[in-house]
Structures are given as C-alpha cells and as structure tokens.
Design goal:
The protein is an alpha/beta fold. The protein has one domain: MTH938-like (Hypothetical Protein Mth938, Chain: A). Helix content is 26%, strand content 30%. The protein has 3 helices and 8 strands, in the order E-E-E-E-E-H-E-H-E-H-E. A 5-stranded mixed beta sheet has the order 5-4-8-6-7, sandwiched between helices. Strands 1-2-3 form a 3-stranded antiparallel beta sheet, covered by helices on one side. Strand 4 and strand 5 form a beta hairpin. The relative contact order is 0.25.
Length: 121
C-alpha cells in the first residue's frame, strides 16, 4: 500500500508497505525493518525477544515503539513489555498498516517514536 506523508527533510518516512517489504524515504528494504526518525535498518526478527529489539534500546531516545505484526494482532510476551518499559520504551503492538500510518503521524508531530515492522503477509 502506498502512503502519502509530509515530514521535515532528513526524516525516515514510510512510503510503502507490502508482503515483499517496505520503502522508506526512497529506499526499498526486503523483509522486516526497524525504522527510527534518523535511520532505517533491516530487522532479523525471527522471534520477538529482547535480543531482537535491543537495537531500539541501544538507539536511545525512543519513548514509543510501534510493533507492526503483519496483518493481524498477536499477543506480546509480558516479559518483553516489562523489559522495554524498564528501558524507558512503551510498546504498542498493532497490524503493520496501522503501525506504518501511526509512525508517520507521530514523526510529523516530532514525537520520539520508532517502528519494528513485519511485512503484512
């Protein structure tokens, strides 16, 4: 799905999402991604664990992590939520389309947000 977003220059905008991956600020990423306001990286998300989400904590400055779980919601382990919260990061799981749209809106509001996105398959 194509998205239209307006944001300050230099920010990572999610422009498109599909089963094959994502287009963020003109760059195509095959598969899952971690999107921060200042950079995007491939995300080897074989499982939702503290280890797989460690780059979010290491990045610093993230207050809210939007977790795009594909086409449907799924439960997130309580321990993972607790670990993120102890690191100062709130977690909001949702379907990937909603996560992409919400990320762009919050970024435009200059919020301290990141997105961990699984392709909608």
């Amino acid at each position: 799905m194509e998205l239209i977003a307006v944001s300050p220059a230099g920010r990572q905008i999610i422009e498109r999402y599909a089963a094959s991956g994502f287009r963020v600020s003109g760059t195509v990423y095959p598969g899952p991604v971690l999107v921060f306001p200042d950079r995007t990286m491939l995300w080897p998300a074989a499982a939702l664990t503290a280890e797989s989400l460690a780059p979010v904590v290491e990045h610093g400055g993230v207050e809210l992590l939007l977790l795009g779980l594909g086409r449907r919601m799924a439960p997130v382990a309580a321990g993972l939520r607790v670990w993120l919260k102890a690191s100062g990061v709130s977690l909001e799981p949702m379907d990937t389309g909603a996560a992409c749209r919400t990320y762009n809106v919050l970024l435009a509001e200059d919020r301290r947000v990141a997105a961990a996105l699984l392709p909608p398959v």
